[in-house]
Amino acid sequence: MSYLHNIGQYFLMIKEMFRKPTKWSVMRHLIFKDIDDLIINSIGIVAFIAFFVGGVVTIQTALNISNPLIPKSLVGFATRQSVILEFAPTFISVIMAGKVGSFITSSIGTMRVTEQIDALEVMGINAINYLVFPKFIALMLYPFLISIAMFLGILGGMAACVFGGFASLDDYIAGVQMDFIPFHIVYAFIKTFVFAFLLATIPSYYGYYMKGGALEVGKASTTSFVWTSVAIILLNYILTQMLLS
Amino acid sequence: MIEVNDIHKSFGDAKILKGISTTFEKGKTNLVIGQSGSGKTVFLKTLLGLYTPDQGSIIYDGTDYSDLSTDEKSNLRSKMGMVFQGSALFDSMSIAENVKFPLRMFTKQSKSEMNDRVDLVLKRVNLGDAHNKLPSEASGGMQKRVAIARAIVNQPKYLFCDEPNSGLDPKTATVIDNLIQEITHEYDITTIINTHDMNSVMEIGQKIIFLKDGFKEWEGSNKNIFKTDNEAVTDFVYSSDLFKRVQKMYLEEDQ
C-alpha cells in the first residue's frame, strides 16, 4: 500500500509543481543557480567517466574480436553504437542519479529538517514550485551533458584503439561512420529527456516528503538513488521496446 | 484578532489538540505555554495553516480560514510572519537577502525601495551592519533577530513565534522578548508566542494560555498567573524554587 501511496503522492507533487508559479524575477535566479549546480558542476565527472569508459568499451570489443575475417573497423562501429544507444544516455543517467539525485534530495531534505520549507509555506509560497520547478527546467539542459558524454566516449575509444594498437585511426573512424542511423540519436535524446525528468522529480520527492532529522536525510538520499535508478532502468527498457523494436 | 473555536487535531490515533477555543487580541503579546508534548507546536502550526484542523474553526479578523480558496489562503499567509524555533533562515542567502525575500516575492517595489526597507528593519533589530553575512556566520541570537526582521519586513498583520528564545543565553533571550513586545505594540499586530520559558511569561505575557495534554487548561495574564490555584499551572510554573520565591515576593508586594 505504501508504494501506491508514494506513487500517488509523487504524481500530485508533479501537478503541484505547475500550479501557482513563483514570480519570474525570483524563478530566473533559481533556474540559473540550478543550471550551475546540476549541469555545469557535473561536466567534469561526466567527461572523465565518458572518456575512460569509451576507452574500455573499445578495448573489450577489440579483445573479443579474434576472427581475422571480421574487419577492424567493427571496433569503431561497436563503440559508437554502445556509447550513443546505451552508455551515454542510460549509464551516465544512473551515475547522475547518484551525483545530482543525492544533491537534490539532501538539499531539499535539509531544508525540510531545518523548517526552511515550512517558512516558505507560511509565507504563502508554493514550495514545490519554488524548489522543484527550477530543477526540472535546469535539467532540460541535460541533453547537452549527454552530447558531451557521447562525443568524449567515442573520442576515448579512439584514443584507446589507436594508442593500444588494436586498429588504425582510419579503421576506427571508418567504423564510427559505418551504417549510421540518425534515428538512433533521436532515440537517445528522447530517453535523455525522460531521464532528465526523473532525475529532477524523484529525488525532489524524497527530499520534500522526508520526515525526521539529519540521519533521515542520508537515508532519503540513498532511497532516492535506488528508486531513480530503478525508474531509469525500467523506462529504458520500455522506451527501447517502443522506439527500436 | 484571531478567534479559535473548538479546534481538534489528530495524527493517526494520537489526538494532539482536543477542543481548544480562545481569542488572540491585536496589539498584545499572546503566549501559549505548556510542557513539551502538550500540543503547543501543533497548535501554532494549525493557526498558521500548515496543519488543517479535524474540527473547529480559526477566524482571522472575521475571515474563516476554512472558507478560503487555496489562493486566498496563500494571500492570507503572506500577511503572516513567523519566527521558527531554529530560525529557518535560507542557508544559501545572505542576511540581507533573507530579509528581502518576502519583499521580492510579494511586492512590486524597486530594488532601492527594497534595500531601504531591509536597512530599516535590520537597524530595528540592531543588525545594521550584518547585511552580507551568511546565516552560518551569525550567532544564535543574531539568527533569531534576522528571523524577526524577515517576519516583519512585509508589515504582517499576524506574528507567530515558536520558542523564540530557546537555546539563547538569558540576556539575549530578554533582548529577543523585549524586541517582540516592542514590535507588537509599534506595528499593532496580533502576536502569538509559543514558549516554555518562564522569564518570557513574567516579562511579556499580556495574555497567557496554558495547554496540557491537548486541552486549554488555563487562560490569564502574567499578573494573575501568580494568583491561580490551578494545580497543573502551579506545577508547571513553580517547578523551580526560584519561581516559588518570585511568587512569594510578588504576592507580598501585592498585599
Report on this model:
The complex is a heterodimer of chains A (245) and B (255). By secondary structure, chain A is mainly alpha-helical. Chain A has one domain. Chain A contains 10 helices and no strands. In chain A, helix 4 packs across helix 8 and helix 6 packs antiparallel against helix 9. The longest helix of chain A has 40 residues. The two termini of chain A are 34 Å apart. By secondary structure, chain B is an alpha/beta fold. Chain B folds into 2 domains: 141 residues, P-loop containing nucleotide triphosphate hydrolases (Rossmann fold), CATH 3.40.50; 67 residues, no CATH class. In chain B, 40% of the residues lie in helices and 24% in strands. Chain B is built from 9 helices and 10 strands. In chain B, helix 4 crosses helix 5 and helix 6 runs parallel beside helix 7. The mean pLDDT of chain B is 87. The chains are: A mainly alpha (245), B alpha/beta (255). Chains A and B meet through helix 2 and helix 5 of A and helix 2 and helix 3 of B.
Give structural attributes.
heterodimer, A: 245 residues, mainly alpha, 10 helices, elongated, B: 255 residues, Rossmann fold, six-stranded mixed β-sheet, four-stranded antiparallel β-sheet, 9 helices, 10 strands, globular
State the separation between the terminal residues of chain B, measured CA to CA: 34 Å
Q: Cα-atom Rg of chain B, whole angstroms?
A: 19 Å
Low-confidence stretches of chain A: none
Q: Largest protein interface?
A: A-B, 18 and 28 residues
Q: Count every beta strand of chain A, where a strand is a DSSP E run of 2 or more residues.
A: 0
**Helix count of chain B, per DSSP?**
9
Low-confidence stretches of chain B: none
